[in-house]
Amino acid sequence: MHNYLDFEKPIAELEGKIEELRHLSSDGQMNIADEVGKMQAKVDKLLVTTYQKLTPWQKTQVARHHDRPHAMDYINSLIDDFTPLAGDRQFAEDPAVVGGMGRFRGQSVVVIGNEKGSDTVARVRHNFGMAKPEGYRKAQRLMKLADRFNLPVITLVDTPGAYPGVEAEARGQAEAIARSIEVCFGIKVPFVSVVIGEGGSGGAIALAAANVVVMMEHSVYSVISPEGCASILWRDGDMAETAAGALKLTAQDLADLGVIDAIVAEPLGGAHREREQAIQSVGKEIDKQLAELAALPGDALRSARREKFLKMGTNGLA
C-alpha cells in the first residue's frame, strides 16, 4: 500500500476501490478483470495529469517521500562488492553520511551519500540525513582516497541540510562544509553527483561540487528549505508553499538556470512507486556521464569543475 501525499487523494481513492475489487475477486464472488483494467487506466491517466503539473511545493513533498529510494538502496543495487568505510579519523563516525569503495558496472569507484534511513529507528540513527562535521570530514577522507588511487567519485545527495545543533557548530560545522567543497574542487578524478531527493543548502553542495550534477525529475535543490525561507522572510511557516515557488528549487528550474547538467526521468507517480526502475535509470545516467569524463586528464577534470562553478551567476543569472 502506498503512502499517499495530500495532492494524491483522488489517486488514493481510485486505487482503494481497485484493491476492494481485487479482494472480492480473490474470494471467488465475481470476475472483475475488465472493471479493474478500466479503473487502472483511470489511475494511470490521473497520475500522468497530476505529475505533469506539480507545483514546486508538491515536488518538495515528493522529494521528501519516505518511500523514495535512499542512498543505501542505490548502493546496494548499483555497487558490487561495496566495502563501507567509517569514521573521519579525528572525532567519530557519522551515520548520516555513508561511503566506501566498490565496483560500478565493473569499474572501481568511491561512492558517498547522505542516508536518511527507511524507517523510524533508522531515521533516528542516521539523524535524518543531516550530517555533523565528522560526516563531512569522512567525505573529505574518502574523496582524497579516491584521488590517491585514481578512482571516480559518485555522490548521492539527499539531505535537508547540515545538522544545526550546538555540538555540531562547536566542532566546526561551517569549516567542515567549506573544506569539503575545497576538496571537491581539488581532486583530479571524474566526479558525478546525483540529487536523489532533497539537496539542502551547504549540507548538499559539500558533496555536490562535481564535474556533472544530475537531478532526479522530482528532486529539489536549494540554498535553504522552503520552511526556513518562509520563517526568515515572512516569519510564518505557512508561507512555505510560496517560498518554494520563489526559490527555483526544481530540477527543471535549475536546468534552465544552468546549475545542473541533466535530469533523470522518474517512473510514473515518482521514484517511490517503482523504486528499482528509478535506481536503474540513475545507474544508466551515471554510467553515461562517467564514460564521457573518462576521456579527460586529471588536470582538465579539476579545471573544468572549478570553471563550471565560477561561471554560475554570470550572463544575467542571479
| Number of structural units classed as domains | 2
| Text of the CATH class of the largest domain | Alpha Beta
Helix/strand structural class? alpha/beta
**What name is given to the CATH topology of the largest domain?**
2-enoyl-CoA Hydratase, Chain A, domain 1
SS element count, helices? 14
CATH architecture of the largest domain: Alpha-Beta Complex
Kindly describe this structure.
The protein folds into 2 domains: 6-53; 60-310, 2-enoyl-CoA Hydratase, Chain A, domain 1. It is 49% helix and 16% strand. It is built from 14 helices and 8 strands. Strand 2 and strand 3 (107-114) form a beta hairpin. It starts with 8 loop residues before the first helix and ends in an 8-residue tail after the last helix.
SSE order and pairing:
Blueprint (H helix, E strand, L loop, with lengths): L8 H18 L6 H20 L3 H8 L7 H8 E6 L12 E8 L2 E8 L5 H6 L7 H16 L4 E7 L6 H5 L2 H14 L4 E10 H8 L3 E5 L3 E3 L3 H8 L6 H7 L4 H7 L4 E3 L10 H19 L4 H13 L8
Parallel strand pairs: 3-4, 4-5, 5-6, 5-7, 6-8
Antiparallel strand pairs: 1-2, 2-3
Task: Offer a concise description of the structure.
This protein has 318 residues and is an alpha/beta fold. It has helices at 9-26, 33-52, 56-63, 71-78, 120-125, 133-148, 166-170, 173-186, 201-208, 226-233, 240-246, 251-257, 275-293, 298-310; strands spanning 79-84, 97-104, 107-114, 153-159, 191-200, 212-216, 220-222, 262-264.
What key phrases describe this protein's structure?
alpha/beta, eight-stranded mixed sheet, 14 helices, 318 residues, 2 domains, 2-enoyl-CoA Hydratase, Chain A, domain 1
